[in-house]
UniProtKB/TrEMBL annotation:
S-adenosyl-L-methionine binds at residues 212, 241, 262, 307. Keywords: 4Fe-4S, Iron, Iron-sulfur, Metal-binding, Methyltransferase, rRNA processing, S-adenosyl-L-methionine, Transferase. PANTHER family: RNA M5U METHYLTRANSFERASE (PTHR11061), TRNA (URACIL(54)-C(5))-METHYLTRANSFERASE (PTHR11061:SF30). Catalyzes the formation of 5-methyl-uridine at position 747 (m5U747) in 23S rRNA. NCBIfam families: meth_trns_rumB. Belongs to the class I-like SAM-binding methyltransferase superfamily. RNA M5U methyltransferase family. RlmC subfamily. This is 23S rRNA (uracil(747)-C(5))-methyltransferase RlmC. It comes from Pseudenterobacter timonensis. The keyword Iron-sulfur applies.
Amino acid sequence: MQCALYDAGLCRSCQWIEQPVPRQLDAKMADLRQLLAGHAVGEWCAPVSGPEQGFRNKAKMVVSGSVEKPLLGMRHRDGTPQDLTACPLYPASFAPVFAALKPFIARAGLTPYNIERRRGELKYLLLTESQLDGGMMLRFVLRSESKLAQLRAALPWLRQQLPQLKVITANIQPVHMAIMEGEQEIYLTADEVLAERFNNVPLWIRPKSFFQTNPTVASALYATARDWVRPLPVRHMWDLFCGVGGFGLHCATPDMRLTGIEISAEAIACATRSAAELGLTNLHFQALDSTRFATAQESAPDLVLVNPPRRGIGEALCDYLSQMAPQFIIYSSCNAQTMAKDIASLANYRIARVQLFDMFPHTAHYEVLTLLVKNG
């Protein structure tokens, strides 16, 4: 992939961009093999990759500069701003949105937040696109509600320019810290969710619900989990750290009982809506802490699927799974180091199958899916 920003030394986020993608995949596979070197792996599946560029379905842009000439992008470590609207990781459909947002910021009088002076209102712009119909969700992250009336008044112009904006919100983040969003979300449109669909499974995206950034590879990840689960004798399954329910909704069958657990109430609302649309009545989603939920149960189901954040599932959940010994565990990880550490704690399990998913091309990061089977 060619990137003018990288060539000019203005952005180094894609640290592996000079390596061909096949070489990147080889390096990631070598890293994964080293992390799991202490285990006998039944099957190493071929890694899955997607497009080299234009694959991101979301942009998280720091707003800097002036109200007349805003910059949308990031800040370097020394505090200098860098416009990233030409980043080749974004699809072509983002360009007209960025182009319209710059004059809109002036129209609405949304002064970019100045970190040094602690003045200004507009901190971030968060944009998400649905692959289903090209609909988009736009979130204005503001320091306060002081410019909310001006934002509302200017919105008709923006929606006329960009009819693809289905969901628009203002998020209030008053803290002087590098925190992406605050607790308060104010909807500026009648629609509050963005419709998406992977592998004929309806998914819904709300402002605060986590959603994968690489739809092509994420679709393959969910489909692979489904294909691994379907042949297994599973009557009851847990989907822990389930997010909007992508894994559970793909793996569930009408005669399977599934419990999905996720700390985010917004994500659970999305998962529940998807299950209803699919007509799956044996799926139950709850907004709870996954570890606390699991460790409070007196027994475990046939299969536990975990998709934790980068910190992994941790000692408490590992101990519980070792003690309760479900027949199968599927571990989806965005941090193979913590996954390897957790698997080392699950001494009564063998690794039946592993597959790497290149969710983040041009970086050292990757996702991995692992099927663990109880010994004996």
